[in-house]
Amino acid sequence: MGTRIPGKKGMGLSPDHPKGLGGWLALIQIGLYVTFIRSFILVYDFFTNTLGSEGWYALTSPASADYHASWKLVLIFEVSANIILLSASVYLLTLLYNKRAVFPRWLIFYYIIGLLLQLVIIVLVAGIPQSSELAASGNLLQNVARGLVNGLIWTAYILRSKRVRNTFVN
């Protein structure tokens, strides 16, 4: 029902529903921080270790035995996807801590985009004959399955949670 609390206009009724960034929202926060750290490390590694390295030239130089014209596109797309996820996680954390009403919609959009980016990477990698086994390997498909289950669970929570409805009102 509710608890009676004093207010500016006398006693008011406060709902006994959860509110704030606690509960299951703490796991969403942790997930966003993990994505931020993971994406930052991958982007940093790309610019410091991959770009300009022997591995880069082996995959992107026509004189190399491992060369395929699509490798450069795949590598650039993957680092771009990580930059997008890095930026999105910062934006979502900002919305989360400001308790913005648009946070739930943007979080659902974030899960969809993350899943689509993973699928595009698999399709791009599958188009390279030397790496078709990599695209069909359990690791990439496992990432997609994990992203799908993660997105479905948290989308259902975001859409049904009273805490989310009571917290994100600004």
UniProtKB/TrEMBL annotation:
Cross-referenced Pfam families: DUF2569
The name this protein goes by in its record: DUF2569 domain-containing protein
Organism per entry: Paenibacillus typhae
InterPro entries: DUF2569
Domain of life (superkingdom): Bacteria
Membrane spanning residue stretches: 21-44, 73-96, 108-128, 140-159
Coiled coil regions in record: none
Keywords from the UniProt entry: Membrane, Transmembrane, Transmembrane helix
Upper lineage: Bacteria, Bacillati, Bacillota, Bacilli, Bacillales
